[in-house]
Amino acid sequence: MALSRAVKRKENLASSDSKRDLIIAAARRVFESEGLEGASLRGIAKEAGYTPAALYFHFDSKEALYAEILAESLEALAKRVNAAFRSETDLENRLRRAAMAFYYFYSANPRDLDLGFYLFKGGMSPVGLGKERDNKLNDQLWEALAPINQAFLDLGQDEDQAKALTAGTFAHTSGMLLLEHTGRMRLFDTTGELLMHSYLDNQLKLIADKS
Amino acid sequence: MALSRAVKRKENLASSDSKRDLIIAAARRVFESEGLEGASLRGIAKEAGYTPAALYFHFDSKEALYAEILAESLEALAKRVNAAFRSETDLENRLRRAAMAFYYFYSANPRDLDLGFYLFKGGMSPVGLGKERDNKLNDQLWEALAPINQAFLDLGQDEDQAKALTAGTFAHTSGMLLLEHTGRMRLFDTTGELLMHSYLDNQLKLIADKS
Amino acid sequence: MALSRAVKRKENLASSDSKRDLIIAAARRVFESEGLEGASLRGIAKEAGYTPAALYFHFDSKEALYAEILAESLEALAKRVNAAFRSETDLENRLRRAAMAFYYFYSANPRDLDLGFYLFKGGMSPVGLGKERDNKLNDQLWEALAPINQAFLDLGQDEDQAKALTAGTFAHTSGMLLLEHTGRMRLFDTTGELLMHSYLDNQLKLIADKS
Amino acid sequence: MALSRAVKRKENLASSDSKRDLIIAAARRVFESEGLEGASLRGIAKEAGYTPAALYFHFDSKEALYAEILAESLEALAKRVNAAFRSETDLENRLRRAAMAFYYFYSANPRDLDLGFYLFKGGMSPVGLGKERDNKLNDQLWEALAPINQAFLDLGQDEDQAKALTAGTFAHTSGMLLLEHTGRMRLFDTTGELLMHSYLDNQLKLIADKS
DNA sequence: TATGAATGAGTATTCATTCAT
DNA sequence: TATGAATGAATACTCATTCAT
């Protein structure tokens, strides 16, 4: 008749988690339409169909909620980049695919970029977040970059070289996204996508030339 | 009596302008110590020795004041980059010097970077700023990038190529500054300066290889 | 099966009571470290290892919980004062001991004083508490004052005189504790303890002079 | 025709001050009807016919507003006690009058007592107030007690004795007010006023006996 | 008996901006 | 040109309490 306690608890947990997810989803929606600064706890709560106070049952603070969103975003990013990496066997294309996956992800979700910069600002958040969360986010970021790093290793670069190349690619991509996001790309009559491809071609050429 | 009206007006204008500059200087000081989010009109007014209301005689809005600061910053940046460009006769070093001047400027004044991103966000400001000001800022930005573009032209690139190369250099530099500013460079055991040099070396090598 | 229902109920009762005591103890701890204003139901619940909602099974309201704590405190106070009274046979010292026991109790537990003032404020609590509880607390307070009253009776005062003397001693002691608690005693380069002794000496002298 | 600037400024000042006083008066009214805990900035602002934000133009914080009220209260108290002291030439009655003026003041304005205890709690306020204000309040308190102290001096007590006697009188009065304020006086079938008189008579008798 | 989830009312304070003077 | 005074909307967050489960 009745469900066993264990099952019930599981269901509650699922329900609880799904509520968290509901709130996070609502927060994402608000972010997307209002931007980071425009997204208030009140607004998020309203969008989620809750009282502001209710959110505090699920998240310790606004920043913690933000961090959760960023974490989910980074997770999705990492999945995307890894999938792109794995979808290719050609070593050169692997790099291209992985790096472009990174680029396309943020090109499609520009607000997530803001979020990342906001929470990473100064290397730590102003309010809470704390070191543990910073470390966690760093780890997640690295997981998204790891395929790119691996691609460079696979192309014959040693560990230090690969790391530097990954950093360069990350920076280049971030900058490119920034220019597009802030509408400055118009100055140059070109697109970030094009420039990304050219950057990657150059990297591959340079690597090929070395050997 | 003593002074003619015309002279008086001129003096007032001068005095007015110097007051503007005083306010802008105060705002810069506040930005540097408090950051973009921490800088309030009240705080700026206090630092300038004025009432908040007084600032509205000199600037239409907070954003307008910000824009003015950004304009000054871009002007200083342009001067710096141009001077670096002119200080060199060797074509390759010209590029290096100009690009690194850009990098060093923001590395030393990271808050100015924030300001730029903030005001350029979305291609237009939320409140005022308007198209004219956006255009003006774009022009100023281009003035800071022009020497880099010229260096590429001098290295034998055609106009389109130079523009794309300038865009790439701009993006790369911006991304690098971003990574450093947000403390993410630590992930890679290297520095933005080093990576900048390596990027520029690669660009020069690729150009040389082409011909 | 094994245990009879009656026994079970008793056990439950005992268990319930011990839980109550656990909560009260937790609340006391929170009071002592956070003060009256700083003590929230949430904090108390956490300290007790419960959910806030759980406390409502044991206490009708926050005020009711407070009242319980005050009741325990008054009980302890009464015990202390009675013991002090009984520990002496000399009539004059009996008064001194009893009154000083009162003083020392609150001097050591200043938060309990706050609690008393808070709950007694206006003669009744804002929310619940009600008349029964007020009467109960009054009774308990009187039990703590009874030894002092008895001491005055033993010193030959009639009932009315003793009551008035008790009231005076109570007021004097309370005021003294208040001055110390609020740091105002510093104005006078003396201590509450000293002044208490001098007050009691005077009372005894006045009584002696009368006869 | 027009008013001179100096006059205008004076008027403005007067107007500004009167607005402060208006707010303070409103705050007092709210205190009296709602009590200390029930008095919120919002409520005070509403009562004063202002927006909460407007109060911050006149007072730095809620605590600062409270402190101002307490300061005014203490000033009025001091005036009252001094006047009582001066109205008498008979040395014994001087003490009586001054001490009873103190008592009557708080008996008529019991909320002011709360305010004093609240702001003096722990010798310093939790939020702001700061040492300067604490010192100022202490000074004001002493000004209200000075006549009592003088009365003891006039009765032939040396400085130390007078100080201790003043402390004792202050404590006794405070305690008496407390008992009345919290409705505990009912336990003793007497009144604070009566007990105050009897306390003062005793003090005078003890002083007379000494010499 | 206890929890998880939620509420609604409340908190002090800050913000950019306006306007009469 | 500048101020003093004020606004209205917003902010994140806390509270005691309730209720279905």
Key terms:
mainly alpha; Tetracycline Repressor, domain 2; 211 residues; homotetramer; DNA-binding; Arc Repressor Mutant, subunit A; disordered N terminus; elongated
Task: Please tell me about this protein's structure.
Four copies of one chain form a homotetramer. The first copy, chain A, has helices spanning 5-38, 41-48, 52-58, 62-86, 91-108, 110-120, 130-154, 159-181, 192-210. By secondary structure, chain A is an all-alpha fold. Chain A has two domains: 1-59, Homeodomain-like (Arc Repressor Mutant, subunit A), CATH 1.10.10; 61-210, Orthogonal Bundle (Tetracycline Repressor, domain 2). The first copy, chain A, is elongated, with a radius of gyration of 20 Å. The relative contact order of chain A is 0.10. Chains in contact: A-B, C-D. The A-B interface holds A 35, 116-117, 120-124, 138, 141-142, 145, 160, 163-164, 166-168, 170-176, 178-179, 181-185, 187-190, 192, 194-195, 198-199, 202, 205-206, 209 and B 116-117, 120-124, 138, 141-142, 145, 160, 163-164, 166-168, 170-176, 178-179, 181-190, 192, 194-195, 198-199, 202, 205-206, 209.
